[in-house]
Specification:
Layout lengths: L1 E7 L5 H14 L4 E7 L10 H18 L7 E11 L2 H13 L4 E6 L7 H5 L3 E4 L10 H17 L6
Parallel strand pairs: 1-2, 1-4, 3-4, 3-5
Helix pairs in contact: 1-5, 3-5
Amino acid sequence: MRIRLVTVGKVKEKYLQDGVQEYLKRLRPYARVEIVTVPDEPIPDGASPAQEAQVMQREGERLLRALDQGGQEHVVVLDGRGKNFSSEELAAFLAERALHGDANLAFVIGGSLGLDPAVLARAGTTLSLGRMTFLHQMVPLILLEQIYRAFKINRGEKYHK
């Protein structure tokens, strides 16, 4: 299985970078996982809704260019309006994708303002991490941990409780 996290902006905090690297290492026996980062767009102070929409559009264009243009990836966008999966449901989702030959996944994480409608339209699946709001830079770490947990669940290995 090949999994890509396609995200806007780099993780800047060292403790989060360390966590991301740890889970990338833990995932190596289960899947090829990579993180593709596109630059974030500066948000002007006191940005108007139109300026915010323009920021999301520019970031969205970058995200779409980073996705597999051949349609070989199942695109999963993270959005607060998406489906809430339990860890077991995420494990079942990954297993189902692999079973049906859809083993290339791209999880798309938008910028701090969210995702442009064009990116949302590209989604095969829309996933929510829940109703809480997370620091944007934490999302890759949280997602990687959940993907790791899902692989452990699917293999019946000790980790998930």
